[in-house]
Design brief:
By secondary structure, the protein is α+β, with helices and mostly antiparallel strands. It contains seven helices and nine strands. The chain folds into two domains: 1-127; 133-186 and 256-337, no CATH class. The chain has helices at residues 2-61, 68-125, 133-140, 188-199, 202-218, 228-251, 318-332, and strands at 172-178, 181-186, 257-259, 264-266, 274-275, 279-289, 295-304, 309-315, 336-337. The strands form two sheets. A five-stranded antiparallel sheet has the order 1-2-3-4-5. A hairpin with a 4-residue loop joins β3 (257-259) and β4 (264-266). α5 packs across α6 (228-251). The chain starts with a helix and ends with a strand.
Length: 341
Amino acid sequence: MIKWIAGFLVVLFVGLMLVTISSQVADSWRAHQNAMIAMEENLATQSKKRSETAERIALIQSKPELDDHDRWLIDHLSKTLAGLDKALLTIDAGQELLHRSLLRTWVGNTVLLLTLLIFGLGMLVRPAKILTAEEKRWLTSDPKTIPGLTFSPSSFRKTIAPTQNSSNFVTGRVKAVNKNVLKVTNSGILRRMALMFIIAPQGGLIMEIYFLVGDLFVEPIPFSQLQWDNIARSLLLSIPFTLVGLYLLASGTSNAQLDRNQQRIIFPGNKENLSFKDVESIQLNEFLTTGKRSYINSQIQLNLRNGDCLSLLSHAGKDHIYVDLIRTALFMKKPVVLPES
């Protein structure tokens, strides 16, 4: 039931975004067409004036002899002609800006819509709670019947290891890279969320880069006349969302790697690696996280022989944490400490 409600909400959200974006595109198209019609009428008027002025200059110059008034009139009309030429160039530039604005809007909204659709479909087709057949067996079986799994109730620690973050959804999983390596990786839903933040606002920036390349190399224009304000606005929109996406990818899990050949847990960055022999047991913790909303977080905690403890993975996906703890314990051949032990 919850799955269908969540699916309905995702579809409703995407549908509302589709209606909103379609309305924005329609409004933009109408405004563009009205502006183009006005510019074309102005262009036709200015072109007619230019033709009449040029014809008048040619007519005066065709006289056998020119008096002072004729020369003054030619000079005056030539200045008028130059002004009309400048006006025509301005109108052409305005039309180009309108075309760019429309293209930027269409491409930006298309990229945004496709990103939302792909994210929504991904949530429906491959929801975050999906488990493998082996994980489902572990989840439904009595832990004492799981081959190779041992227990150490006496090594229970009351202290809960500090967590990297707390979340109310599945942010990471322990996955097998090969038979000798496990890796704590970001969950599918977290990766999709991060990519959505990174990709969704990039449509406008892509078009600005396309325009910039054309202005620099195809039909070069002076550097000072480039549309830097549009590029700056696109960057101001793109950079914050990209930073959020990168933060989600970087902070979702510990990104630790468990190597059975080296018998070590390898942490990225400047953190010290940990030998398997330093781990006494692997404990499952459940604790309340409070804030605007309260929810239960689950944690895979490494109990070390020196009395310290270390968080390997934590999030609100109780079932996922449980099966990942079993996978880690079987891989490291370490006993587990369960809440009911």
